[in-house]
Design goal:
Blueprint: H1 27-42, E1 47-49, E2 59-62, E3 79-89, E4 93-98, E5 106-113, E6 115-121, E7 127-133, H2 134-147, E8 162-164, H3 165-174
The protein binds nickel (II) ion.
The site of nickel (II) ion has 5 residues, from helix 2.
Length: 175
């Protein structure tokens, strides 16, 4: 049965730990990923990393879909990303809005590489090489940061780049 998982919030030490490699793709990690996909959809997220649900493991899900929190998100099939590696990042970067389920009510402008080359394992144990661009590359970089104990707030250049959720909703609806 799928379960909506509790989400660790800013200040919880688990969000600051370096997560451990997943050593076996077994029933336990499969169930964790299934519950993470269920949870991220239930709370209108586009990505969720295992440390955010109190599992300090190198795994995250990407599940971009337009929703009230991210009206312009591209549609993608939910993807399980296990033991990810970012092999290269484009020098070209772009500033964009980010939020985090672990930092409710806050949005910020974060500079990220436009494209990245990555490797990861799937739940089937398959090794995948992929190139991501734009919003999906942004999700990947944000979720990868969670595995290193980094929060998007750490990447904010100025406090002026932080806004509340309701101000953010006004901004995106005015453009
Ligand atoms: Ni996050």
């Amino acid at each position: 049965m799928l379960k909506q998982l509790d989400i660790a919030e800013l200040g919880n030490p688990i969000l600051r730990k370096t997560a451990a490699r997943v050593t076996a793709i077994d029933e336990e990690i499969t169930q964790l990923i299934d519950n993470m996909i269920y949870t991220v959809k239930s709370v209108d997220g586009v990505g969720l990393a295992a440390p955010q649900v109190f599992e300090s493991k190198r795994a995250f899900v990407m599940a971009s879909n337009p929703n009230p929190r991210y009206p312009d998100a591209p549609v993608m099939e939910p993807a399980a990303i296990i033991n990810p590696v970012i092999n290269s990042k484009s020098d070209e970067q772009i500033i964009g809005w980010e939020g985090c389920l672990s930092i409710p009510g806050i949005r910020g402008l974060v500079l990220r590489s436009i494209s990245i080359d990555v490797e990861y394992q799937t739940l089937q144990g398959e090794k995948i090489s992929a190139t991501y661009h734009d919003f999906i590359a942004r999700i990947f970089q944000h979720e990868y940061d969670h595995l290193e104990g980094i929060m998007f707030l750490d990447r904010i250049k100025s406090n002026n780049d932080l806004v509340t959720e309701s101000e953010y909703q006004k901004i995106i609806r005015s453009v």
